[in-house]
């Protein structure tokens, strides 16, 4: 019974230690749990074999005790007290083996449940990490969209300014052409008048008496 108590304390201590492991160590913790579960399965098999052996021996002892109580023509006497003592000893061993099996089965179930929980936590953490990455990508895309929209707005404003400037230049060019045309008309008129007066002066000069 002392061995069983120590075994139970060992399982509790290991469970407590495993429960304090953080998420960064989940993979190593799960690997350790798998190793512990393999060790438990081996111990469970040994305990089951022990129970089977004890059951077989108990059946033999029970048969010997029953035959000892039956009057027969046996040549060798059978010590019933010794058989009963051996029977009780094997029965005690069987009970301890069964309890050990139950303890190990419970420990294996606990470790398996903890392994599944921590695997689920790890998957959730990875999923949360993927969600965070996707969220960051979406935020970055939104920022780029805002920047592009601002650039488009600036280009539209610049285009409007260029349109106004082009219209002003077109009006100035038109005004310049009109002014230049008027100036040319004045110059031509001036030259025409000059030539006209020059011809008149020459004609009147020929009529002057000598």
Q: How many helices in DSSP terms?
A: 3
Rg on CA atoms, Å? 57 Å
Structure classification: mainly alpha
Shape: rod-shaped
Account of the 3D structure:
- With 210 residues, the protein is mainly alpha-helical.
- It has one domain: Orthogonal Bundle (Helix Hairpins), CATH 1.10.287.
- Helices cover 90% and strands 0% of the residues.
- α2 runs antiparallel to α3.
- The radius of gyration is 57 Å and the shape is rod-shaped.
Question: Topology, please?
Answer:
Blueprint lengths: L1 H18 L6 H44 L10 H127 L4
Helix pairs in contact: 1-3, 2-3
Which key terms come to mind for this protein?
mainly alpha; WIP1/2/3; single chain; 210 residues; Helix Hairpins
Summarize this, please?
The protein is mainly alpha-helical.
